[in-house]
Amino acid sequence: MPLDPMQLPPSTMVFLLATVIKMLFVFTIYMVVVAYTTLAERKVSAWIQDRHGPNRVGPWGLLQVAADGVKNFLKEETMPGDVNKPLFVLAPALSFCTAMIAWAVIPFGAPLPTPWGRIDLVVADLPVGFLYLLAITSLGVYGIVLAGWSSNNKYALLGGLRSSAQMVSYEIAMGMSLVCVLLVAGNVSLPAIVAQQQAGAYNVVLISVAAFIFLVSAFAETNRVPFDLPEAESELIAGYHSEYSGMKFSMFFIAEYANVITASAMFVTLFLGGWDIPFTSWDDTGPATVLKTLATFAMFAAKLYAFVFFFIWIRWTLPRFRYDQLMSLGWKILLPTALAYIVIVASAILALDASGASRTGWAFKGALLGINLVCLVILFVLIDRGRLISPAYSRLHKERVAQLRRAAELRSTLASGESR
Fold first, then answer.
1. What is the pLDDT of residue 53?
2. Helices in 355-396 by DSSP H: which ranges?
């Protein structure tokens, strides 16, 4: 039976042209999504706080993003006299570029059939895309550190040092959590990881502890509440971007939302099946069609923005961690938990492979699911019980807190008696 030419890989010239088109498409969509994520943050925060968000510029405030962009471009740029000018200018761009470049290996839809061959919806289908993601995203810390150091400002430097310590601490836990994904998938290619989840169950179900560790680490890596210590305005003025103004100042906020979107795309790809449409095999069986490509792209976008909404929701819900709680959570809780979970998952997979269980079979998935449920009960019910992973957690025991309250009440009573 002859092969359908629309299912074959394209020629070299078509491949190069398609790559350029995909680069332009991803860059354009990415910039638009980043811009309107800032509007979504303001709209969702207004909804949560029961007030009106931006609604004056354009219908429903949709042109507020354009107005903010024009304002930032026209705003005067300041250059303090004692800064390191090359690094001072480079830092904002470096913070943004690392988040955008990471998108090169993320598949965002089913292959597109064309008369010239099959076009994969990924800019660069690297066989080591997983390792590329970790390497590129880890470079984002340099933009923040350089911004703090090159500003020649003690508050900016303190914010940069805080950020470097925080991001390095949680990068380790994040990397360890993703080892479990590699163990389950048996591959470091992102399309292969998506295909593994299509054939079985999503990794968020099979290795929920790893997904939770990645989730917490993603909040810390993107400097979002409750991990926004590098930008703690009440303590550090504005953190590492204290000396910036105009468009360079805006680039740090654009980089923050770019990192949020990139972290969301990583979570969707590694734990939520990527562009796969759940509860159906229509999108990953049979010949590729344009309808499948559009439907899977829409599903990937829906999953992505659901996770972005979760980022925004958490910001307006949880209080900020203390710095000692932040570092303790990363080194004393998440990292040991990730290492222990790697041992458990690796031992389970080794035993299942030795028993001859197929990785796509229900026996393999059921065994991993059972082990995962036991680990969740041990971690959240027996060990944590809502005390360790909480910004509001206090080291004081309840008896000590009650004793301090009684002493305060006694002092208040004595003071009121003396005033009489």
1. 86
2. 362-376
